[in-house]
Amino acid sequence: MTAPRRPRLVLLGTGGTIAGAGTAAEAGLSAAYRSAVVGAEALVAGVPALARLADLRAEQLLQIDSADFTDALLLRLARFTRIMAAIRYAIPTAGLFWTSVEIAHEWGLYDEFWSKPLDYAMEMTIVLAAFLLAVFLAVIMPRRRTVAPAQSANG
User: Fold this and answer.
1) Which of these is catalytic: 14, 17, 81, 146?
2) Which of 30-34, 53-57, 80-84, 143-147 has the lowest mean pLDDT?
3) Of 1, 30, 44, 94, which residue is most buried, by most CB within 10 angstroms?
4) Residues of the chain with pLDDT > 70: what percent?
5) Does residue 99 carry a catalytic annotation?
6) How far apart, in Å, do the first and last CA atoms of the chain sit?
């Protein structure tokens, strides 16, 4: 019996918040955080369990702060025709989601716990669990979408 074929996934690195890093807080100050300093390959290497779920490859397309993302850079990304479908879905989804996050923060509904991860261990664990669940579903769902071949009229 052959092992089931694992899905092939490509992580496209553009920098931004998730590629940020910083040092621990000192003397009551928040952590010294900088975005876009960790590469895509380092992010993948940081979660070794992902290799068991899928054949994962990382490609670094950009390495910039999210605030520096421009329409010109979007057009540059558009040249990668294999990723256009992903970009068409990812950009509006992220935009809609992040707008609600920013509005909620401006209204004072929560603290930006990701800027002080050691102070908010439970919240960071929930975010990590949600991310791992999303990766798990991304790996499992394509298997469930396979359609059995149509049967002929004779049989």
Assistant:
1) 17
2) 143-147
3) 44
4) 74
5) no
6) 28
